[in-house]
Amino acid sequence: MELDFSILFLVWPRLLDGAWVTVQLTAVVLALATPLAVLVAVLRNIGFALLAWPLGLVSATFRGVPPLLILFIAFFGLPAFGLKLSPFAAAVIAMTAYMAFYFGEVFRGALLAVPAGTVQAATALGLSPLRIFFRIRLPQAVPSAIPPYISHATEVLKGTALTAAISVPELSGTANQLFAVTFRPFEVLLAIALIYGVLDGMLLTVQHLAERRFGSKVWGR
Amino acid sequence: MIPPGDVMVRIEKIAKSYGALQVLKGVSLDVPRGAAVAIIGPSGSGKTTLLRTVNHLEPPDGGVVWVDGAPLGHELADGRLRRGGERLLRRQRADIGMVFQQFNLFPHFTALQNIIEAPMAVRGLTRAAATERAMALLDQVGLADKAQSFPGQLSGGQQQRVAIARALAMQPKVMLFDEVTSALDPELVDEVLGTMRGLAQSGMTMLVVTHEMDFARDVADLVVFMDQGEIVEQGPPGEVLRAPRHPRLQSFLRRVLRRRDDEAPE
Amino acid sequence: MTIDWALLAANWPRLWNGFLVTILLSAIVLAISTPIALLLALGRGSKRWWLAWPAGIYVNVLRALPALVILYFTFYALPQFNLPMAPLWAAVLGLTLASAAYLAEDIRSGLLAVGTGQWAAAKALGLSVPRTVLRVILPQAIPVILPPYVTRVIIIVKGTSLASIVAVSELTGEAFALTSITYRPFDFLLAAAALYLVLTGFLAALQALAEGWLARRTSRPRIVAGALGT
Fold this sequence. Notes:
- By secondary structure, chain A is an all-alpha fold.
- Chain A is built from eight helices and no strands.
- Chains in contact: A-B, A-C.
């Protein structure tokens, strides 16, 4: 059981390439899914019964099916609609679709957790529903949304590993290819575990900064 | 029917039920212009619900509330009442100020921002005009130096005074106070009551749901006792509080005053 | 986007088998990871650093890694140390290791919700740790843990799909294989999705019931947030 870490010196460029794809995929999905999720949360919250109900159903469907299966459906199914997509693009579409609903739940929960009393006070003052939503509810929802948002963001990061199954050249897929080449899966895995840890740590730092800037502690609590 | 001009608020046969529970059983009350009305009674008597029907935060199941001659939530067309829309209600609410037991200040706004929000959004004031009005009100309640503080940095009594200033900034015709000192530590109650006393003396029409009997006795023009969803007795404080006629009011006062005497420092 | 129902019906047994494997896999993973998670949660709350530290490191490291990477460890790395495992057991091991870490956190929140006062009271009465846990803490913690636990079960069910990547014939794997063979892009994948929805839908209904039961017991307001989790 001797470990040989020297092979890492040979393969680290490929690992770095894979890591870079992972970062890109994560960033693109976050950038697209977040505003979509806000839209979903708003639509479900404002209570247009016509929209809220079917949207809730779609949301439950996307969250009730394994992400891997959704990836396969996007990868195999989208070409049937005439969309010739690269694996990366298919992965983006699939991940954005289901993460929008997971994030949507986070934002919905945060909106629901806003103290009803402040909404009542705003109503008593005669403020319009639109104004109440954007000036009173939304700002109070942000601090409580940050921790679950970041934890879901780390799920996006970890979810990128699944895209290896549809040939996206991200970190885990690259590592998989290196197993056969190096005959040293453990060392390679340790290396990518470290890289994932570092990327994870960066997300946690973002959370720290966000809580300092937007957290409710800013309001003197 | 449009009520005479010296009645600011006319509550006309208001009924409200929650499922099988009848919380208000056809309550009627006339509040004269400039009067301070104290509403007292045991918990569950419906006094808070009644107060909240006056600005339609609780829409009544039956009856109409008239504020300054206009029916709340309704439009008068050829002598008949029709249900009005949300916009009408919002405009009417702007003239009615409410202060809550839990303060309900906007925690992400400073005291000043709390006060200027509605005047700018609803009355269309410029930021400068709203700020000027807000600073004057903060000065009136003795908190001019706390304009830039967040609610989380203020004591309960200070928060409640800001809440009063926020309601006053809309220059309402009537002010509603919903047990506004019940959530405060005893030593902070007086500062809020003092502010309310000043307001009453300046001629504001106010409805005050309260447990503070001394306040009712000293400041109110009219005391209304509610029990089990109806007004049991009403009159000037001298009569209602010192010479109660109804047995339920008598036992209520006995309970409240005895408890107060037990707590009094010796 | 038409579905060839005849083809679907002909291959249904294979899909159904995959579905059963999924359920089996989920059940085994759940059965093993729950007691492990309980021990981890208790360990993390312990005052003895030699219990708290390893538990903490385990939980944090395994939650930082993609579940797939953990599976790679058990499937590819273990043979490197002359510990070859059948794909099914490598998958069970990997999924169990990962799930235990997340479950441990869910359980820890529940235990924390019980409050240190209970531990203090039990200690003052002279109760042993195992007895305290079993008779005092757990009965109070279980109602709190139940809703997040069911959410986690749903996640574990979805997580079994990863086993397809290490050659286990569960539902996703079978749907993938059938898709590759027949070149029908939607039929089998959508059928698999439907089967998953039946399973997770059933579990989500259970969770709603659990939350309702909890709310009635403690007269706490219901927060029906994200039953289906991540």
